[in-house]
Amino acid sequence: MFVNGMPDWVTKLPGAVTVSDSEHRIVYMNDAAAATWEAKGGRELLGTDLMACHNPHSRAMIQELMSTGGTNVYTIEKNGTRKLIFQSAWRDSSGAVAGLVELSLVLPEGMPHFVRG
Prior knowledge:
Elements: E1 2-3, E2 6-7, H1 8-12, E3 16-21, E4 26-29, H2 31-36, H3 56-68, E5 71-78, E6 81-91, E7 97-107
Antiparallel strand pairs: 1-2, 3-4, 3-7, 5-6, 6-7
C-alpha cells in the first residue's frame, strides 16, 4: 500500500524521512519528519525551499551533495537526544541526481556497537 507515493513502511517509519527535488523543494515528509518540524510548519513545509531552513555552511554541504551525488553522515545531540543524520543525493531512473534525502534516526542511550569480522 502507498501513501503520497511512498510505501506505508516509509510513511510510518519511526525515523524522520525528508526528500527534496533537484530545485531544493521539499517534496516528501513522512509522519516522523512532519512531527519533528511541526513548530516550523510540519507538512506545510512541503513545496518550500529546503535551503531556507539551513545556515550557509549547511547550504554549501547540500550544494556539494547535489553536485557530486554524495553522502553526508554524522551524529548530533539536541535536548539530550542523540540522532544519526544520513543525507544523500538520490537519482532518477536515468541516473541523474534528482534531489536529496535525509534520514534522522534517534540513537538509543547505551546503544551497543559490534565489530564483526
